[in-house]
Write a structure and sequence with these properties.
disordered N terminus, elongated, about 0% strand, about 170 residues
Amino acid sequence: MMPTSIECPDLEVLFTELESGEHGPALEHAKLCPLCTAIIEEHRLLEKDLYRLADPLPPPDLVHKVMARVAVEPAPVHRELWTGLSILGVSLLMGLGVLLTNDAALSGAGTALARFLVDGKAFLEALLSGSRALWSTAAGPVAALLAVLLLSSLFGIKRLAGNGPTPSEA
């Protein structure tokens, strides 16, 4: 038995020496003290038990099961619609709040709107004039015919390729 005049070392010092592997005074004390020896043995058993524990891996077919379930039960369209509309509404209200509370932003928005209306009229007239020129020179019908030809070719190639894997399956 140890004499009562020698105190047991702090547990942090004891475990630090134990982890580092150096034989310091705390480990020398633990060799002679039954209480410290019991603590070290309990710590060793606890570490042994902890090392045996492992996080279980998910089953290998987890992703396929989840994707199959998502495909079977898609989110309701009305829920997505209401979520999108609520986000849009909150964004518009916040923008309107910024405009109404900031004089510089309100005057800038008014100026931009007036410039858009004045320049928009000239832009619309130029766009209509250009489309009339395209149509009168037969470039419009040729462009439409080429677009139809290109789209029908693309859809035909897609049909010939069949139903390959979707991007989420790849």
